[in-house]
Amino acid sequence: GIYGVTVTDAAGNMAYSFATVGTSSGPVINPTVTNVLCYGGNSGAVSINVTGGVTPYTYLWSNGATTQNISNLVAGSYDIQVKDAANCISVLSVTVNQPPALNVNVTNTPATCGGNDGTANVAITGGTSPYTINWSTGSHNNLVTGLSAGSYTVTVIDSHSCISNMNANVVIENTNAPVITIDSIVDANCSSNNGSIYVSV
Question: What is the per-residue burial (b if ≥16 Cβ within 10 Å, else e) of 87-118?
């Protein structure tokens, strides 16, 4: 507000003066947010730098913490209240984000009978690229070829060392195996070896 003062001397002379008293703008909060690295994790953190107002400050977070900085956070919104020594209060809301879940989907084509021409391909979504692909065959490609009948596993790791939420078990089965049909059987005469079996394939 504006305040005035009047000074009168012994001779009755008067002088006037006015002064304006301002108010503190209160503390200003500047946050730095560290997002969660892996979906569902708790690696998030928020640190704040406070300027203005009258020191010292006190802190109160919406999760109950009373420290200037907080860590081990899951994704979500967090409110911070900062009070200065003049009881001026500032409030700020910050959001800690996380990447989408790392998922793998495997498709395959079966091997032909006795062959090694089966294939398997992994499609990746979510997480944070680039990805590292580890097949049990030793391959690091999305597509693996030359597979014979059997089981194969694949693990995907993203750039934040988040591991795929499943190991894909790929079973390559033989296809087009020959089908044998017994058409007729001719018995042998007595102890002779003139019996016959007729089949079609």
Answer: ebebebebebebbeebebebebebbeeeeeeb
